[in-house]
Design brief:
Sodium/glucose cotransporter; single chain
């Protein structure tokens, strides 16, 4: 009962504070609704970036992989910091210079409207089919496990999943659809603080549990019991071999932090370039500590449960229930609930943005007012949320290793979109037809590679790692686009216009801070190799 009360109190507090700070927010214009009026500061941007990323498919999925493989899966966290530095230095200045609201808008300026529509369609298909349902399912699994919902309500495990999925989905929809980006980021800011505190408490209590009250003894026991799990260099049989760090891993990170609409939308809403860069760098600095929250608990769970869990993705919620005092279980479940909501409502808000601006206004009603765009975007978001809520409970039999599965499936749209954005910024004469061919061919070839050739022709063991496949297809598509650019170049060189919507004066220490972050990441690998 104490856990339930503390859960409800913290959840209500977050909702109340979000309402208070957004009650007078301007919601009638596109910038006001989709970008929070371009008014976000560094702290808010960093908090929202971190919490949008740290949802249950991340917390549960990555800790589940750490339970099985150890510290080598930290590459998903530590290398993210480098991608955020690259985004702050290279991509964000160009985004803000062009005054864009969505990443596909840049593609319309650089290539043409059809390229933008194809990219928006790929983004939306990824959110609908993969991201939203998996976020809802993994979040519901966490709540069901921590609170033992089947026993509490006398219902089956399946019924409990449906109940939690719809509870999360309805509340997340209210934040994202009716509150706009400002409601999302303010709720994220509060939950981010709670998640960092609660997330660090889990390994502390876990190590003290192992060490009979002594943190140092717990660390010693954990290391000595399985020293091989402390090697960050994965071999060819690992879920992330070390070689993939230099191929597809960095491409995935650059796509996620630099071009994924659900993430970069926070930085696009910065009041100026300085605040946007500081927000990204602050988030990158905190991201280096990510393994404490997303890797170490999985290793602790392996020790406590003696590697006996049949489902690795249950390692984290079972650890929370095992080591946290009852008085804190409710608080942490509320924070985890906030993280679930964050990823769900962020993806949903970005979907509303993409549909409203890039599809509805472009193809259905070119003369639509901002109010009409927002209204129809909200309707689309509602349909999307309902679809995700119906689908999520049905993926209970998803493959083991939810996080790795999510990353592999995302390749269908991540690499094609990253390809045309990178080529678009680095060249001036590559034409629109090259982008269309690359985005369609990239998605089709990746799908054939991973879901036809790999399982049915060559077999899992004889096929290259999916991150290597991503890198190969990326290089192939870039070469193809450059060849087309040589054969049939644009008549006029592309120049990115400066819309002057916000100041693009850079943060004066951006290079120094960015270099420091990169050095720390490299040193981390040296220590754990």
């Amino acid at each position: 009962m104490i856990a339930v009360i503390s859960f409800l109190l913290f959840t209500i507090l977050v909702a109340g504070v979000s309402w208070w700070f957004t009650r007078h927010a301007e919601q009638e214009s596109s910038d006001g609704y989709f970008l929070g009026g371009r008014s976000l500061t560094a702290g808010v941007i960093a908090s929202s970036l971190l919490l949008t990323n740290l949802s249950t498919e991340q917390i549960i999925g990555l800790n589940g992989q750490a339970y099985t493989e150890g510290i080598l899966v930290m590459c998903w966290e530590t290398l993210a910091a480098i991608a955020m530095v690259v985004t702050a230095l290279f991509l964000l200045p160009r985004y803000l210079k062009g005054g864009i609201t969505t990443v596909p808008q840049f593609l319309a300026v650089r290539y043409d409207v059809m390229t933008k529509t194809l990219a928006s369609g790929l983004f939306l298909s990824g959110y609908v089919v993969v991201l939203l349902p998996i976020v809802l399912y993994s979040g519901a699994l966490a709540i069901v496990t921590i609170f033992d919902v089947p026993a509490a309500f006398g219902i089956s495990h399946t019924a409990a999943l449906w109940l939690c999925v719809w509870g999360i989905g309805i509340l997340g929809s209210i934040y994202a659809i009716f509150g706009g980006l400002r409601a999302v980021v303010y709720s994220d800011t509060i939950n981010a603080l709670g998640l960092l505190i609660g997330g660090i408490l889990i390994p502390i209590f876990g190590l003290m549990y192992i060490g009979d009250g002594s943190l140092g003894t717990g660390i010693s026991k954990l290391y000595n019991s399985n020293p091989e799990k402390w090697n960050a260099i994965g071999d060819s049989s690992a879920s992330v071999p070390f070689s993939t760090i230099f191929t597809g891993m960095m491409l995935v990170q650059l796509f996620y932090w630099g071009t994924n609409q659900a993430i970069i939308q926070r930085a696009l809403a910065a009041k100026n370039l300085q605040e946007g860069q500081k927000g990204l760098l602050l988030a990158a600095g905190v991201k280096i500590l990510g393994p404490l929250i997303l890797v170490l608990p999985g290793m602790i769970a392996y020790y406590i449960f003696e590697g006996a869990l049949e489902i690795p993705d249950q390692a984290y919620p079972k650890l929370v229930k095992e080591v946290l005092p009852v008085s804190l279980v409710g608080f942490f479940a509320a924070v985890l609930f906030g993280a679930i909501l964050s990823s769900f409502n962020s993806a949903l808000n970005s979907s509303v943005t993409l549909f409203g601006l890039d599809i509805y206004k472009q193809h259905f009603n070119k003369t639509a007012t901002d109010a009409q765009v927002i209204r129809n975007g909200k309707r689309f978001g509602l349909l999307l949320a309902l679809f995700a809520m119906f689908i999520a409970p049905l993926i209970a039999n998803a493959p083991a290793g939810l996080f790795g599965y999510l990353q592999e499936v995302n390749g269908c749209y991540s690499i094609p979109i990253l390809t045309i954005i990178v080529v678009g910024y680095l060249t001036k004469y590559v034409p629109a037809i090259a982008a269309k061919i690359a985005i369609i061919l990239g998605a089709i070839l990746y799908f054939i590679s991973q879901f036809i050739l790999k399982p049915y022709v060559f077999g899992e063991e004889n096929y290259p790692h999916f991150l290597h496949v991503m890198a190969i297809l990326f290089v192939m598509n870039v070469i193809l686009m450059l060849i087309i650019g040589l054969i049939k170049p644009r008549e006029v060189a592309f120049e990115l216009p400066y819309t002057k919507q916000v100041s693009i004066e850079p943060y004066k220490y951006v290079k120094a801070v960015g270099l420091t972050i990169i050095i720390i990441v490299v040193m981390t690998y040296i220590v754990f190799s």
